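pinging the channel bc i need a second pair of eyes. not urgent but kinda urgent?? the chain im working w is below, pasted from the shared doc
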Amino acid sequence: EISTKAASDSAKTSGEGRLKLIVCQGSSCEGRCRGMFNPKTELLQLAETRGSSDIEIEEVYCMNLCKKGPNVRMVLGGDVVTFPSLMTEIEQRRKAFTGIGGDPGVQRVWGAATSILDGAVQYETHGPPPET
């Protein structure tokens, strides 16, 4: 079931918990990164330098989206969330940001994460994330 929520309905304002960014760390995804770039490391640095205790970074070893990796999925209040205004149609179908192999992709994910917590963007919920 898909549920659309206004930014003011975010989990932060309703006390449902933190926003979780799940980063694929599988070898196929990591192999698509430029040089020594690692999206998880970059997201952790952003969380540390920008002081966001409301964002948790978690890793998984495969999302089964290998051809489009590296991938990042957002989970808010236990449900996967997508952003019609911030994600491509393919990303919305796959319920993950894809091709996050460089700094611009990480900045796009971080921008979406902070926007949802600030109540500045509309999002859709899709139930719990798939088992990986």
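so Strands lie at 3-5, 19-24, 55-60, 72-76, 79-82, 123-125. and The two ends are 20 Å apart (CA to CA). — does that match what u expected or am i reading it wrong
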